[in-house]
Design goal:
The protein has two domains: 8-229, Rossmann fold (3-Layer(aba) Sandwich); 270-399. Helix 8 links the parallel strand 5 and strand 6 (203-209). The chain has 18 helices and seven strands. By secondary structure, it is of the alpha/beta class. Mean pLDDT is 85; it is low at 137-147. Helix 2 (18-29) runs parallel beside helix 3, helix 11 (247-256) packs across helix 12 and helix 13 crosses helix 18. The strands form two sheets. A five-stranded parallel sheet has the order 2-5-6-1-7, with helices on both faces. Strands 3-4 form a two-stranded antiparallel ribbon. It has helices at residues 8-16, 18-29, 47-59, 72-77, 114-126, 140-146, 154-164, 186-197, 217-221, 233-242, 247-256, 261-268, 272-288, 294-308, 311-329, 343-352, 358-373, 378-393, and strands spanning 36-40, 85-88, 97-99, 107-109, 174-178, 203-209, 224-227. 51% of the residues lie in helices and 8% in strands.
Length: 407
């Protein structure tokens, strides 16, 4: 990826990890670079982007703070096809075969999956936020289950270790990147351990994992642990806007994404205005707590929960966060609101419910999201949340017998 061809969104996300990238580059220039690094953190925050940029920097002929993009090595790593850059992915069961002849070392046969691996590498080179394991065209639920069936197996690590003993072909270093390193079974990790304990002078191992605690303590202790935190919502919004997402949509998606650019990008393709309408309807009925109307709204919310997961609850909390902010600051809160287009309605909530305990509301929303994630019955959770919202809002100003938040 030449500097001018790197996706603008990727540049924005990398900028969000600028301090970490600078530390890695400084250590490399000072000759103190660790021969094994473990990049870990939640999904969608840029682990792969940072790890691959560092891999390219390790192979770059220049001694800069980032890949120079003009040397022979950078031209080759641009498409992740450099002969000294070795990538290891988790494979599905049965994807590889092991061949052994006499006393010769075993070899792995990847012929049945080579085309998919090539497509995967090309996809990651173009967009490091794409999937880093074989996509078999399944639904999201099946893809989630696949995370537990795909793994990096012992024959793959043995094959990798044979490459470790060879000289670099083109660059002055060799780099080995293991994606979803936590998917290695115990045998594979133990096989890798010796190389991490006694790395070759020109060899560098970069492990990428969502949870470093899923790796053996002996593996973790041999690596420089690099934990990446969740992204700032402003960084995510900037990245989305650079991809052409409208500013308002980018702002909302970034705040619903819980620090994940990947999640924000998915949300930015959804009809957030429809989600916003459903949230307002639910809040209206919760405020009224009308036994006849509430079931209809709950049914609509249940249908949305299956497609947006926690986003519905995050949306609720952001609305109440805005309401609390407006109640405290009034017009001074205008430029701090997430839902600026709902400012009038947000202002009316504060006026209508002067005794509202917004902290209690947001705690109830968080708890309800947790219940849903644990498999509690959605309609019961939503009914209970409605009652808690009704109670936390308190009495409506003027004690009107009928009240609507949208009047």
């Amino acid at each position: 990826m030449a500097a001018e061809t790197i996706a603008a969104s990727t540049r924005a996300i990398l900028a969000g990890h600028a301090a970490l990238r600078a530390r890695l580059a400084t250590s490399l220039r000072a000759g103190r670079a660790a021969h094994a690094c473990l990049f870990s953190g939640p999904s969608g925050i840029g682990k792969t982007a940072v790890a691959l940029e560092y891999a390219r920097l390790l192979l770059c002929d220049a001694a800069g703070s980032q890949p120079c993009e003009s040397c022979m090595q950078c031209e080759a790593t641009r498409t992740l096809q450099h002969p000294d850059l070795h990538l290891v992915f988790p494979y599905p069961p049965g994807a590889i075969k092991v061949k052994k002849s006499g006393n010769e070392p075993e070899e792995i046969d990847e012929s049945g999956i080579v085309d998919k691996v090539s497509e995967l590498i090309a996809s990651i080179a173009a967009d490091p936020f794409t999937a880093t394991q074989i996509d078999e065209g399944e639904s999201k639920s099946k893809a989630r289950a696949r995370l537990f069936s795909h793994s990096v197996r012992l024959p793959q690590i043995r094959s990798l270790l044979r490459k470790v003993s060879r000289r670099a072909y083109q660059a002055s270093r060799k780099v080995y990147v293991i994606f979803h390193a936590e998917s290695m079974n115990t045998q594979a990790q133990n096989a890798l351990l010796k190389a991490l304990e006694e790395p070759p002078p020109d060899g560098y191992f970069l492990l990428v994992a969502e949870n470093d605690q899923d790796l053996l303590p002996t593996i973790r202790s041999r690596c420089q642990l690099i934990r990446l935190g969740k992204l700032n919502s402003e960084v995510i919004a900037s990245a989305l806007e650079s991809d052409g997402v409208p500013s308002e949509q980018a702002s909302i998606a970034s705040k619903l994404a819980d620090g994940s650019f990947l999640r924000a990008r998915e949300l930015s393709t959804q009809e957030l205005s429809a989600l916003q309408t459903d949230v307002i309807d639910y809040l209206v009925e919760s405020a009224r707590c009308d036994a006849l109307e509430l079931p209809k709204t709950v049914q609509k919310v249940q249908e949305r929960l299956y497609s947006t997961d926690r986003s519905y609850f995050d949306f609720l909390n952001l609305f109440f966060r805005d309401a609390a902010l407006y109640s405290a600051l009034a017009k001074d809160a205008s430029d701090k609101l997430v839902f600026r287009d709902l400012e009038d309605r947000i202002a009316r909530v504060g006026k209508a419910y002067p005794e509202a305990d917004f902290d209690a509301v947001m705690n109830a929303v968080d708890k309800s999201a947790e219940y849903i994630s644990l498999g509690y019955t959605p309609d019961l959770v939503l009914y209970a949340l409605s009652v808690r919202i009704h109670q936390a809002l308190g009495r409506r100003a003027g004690k009107a017998p009928k009240h609507r938040m949208d009047n």
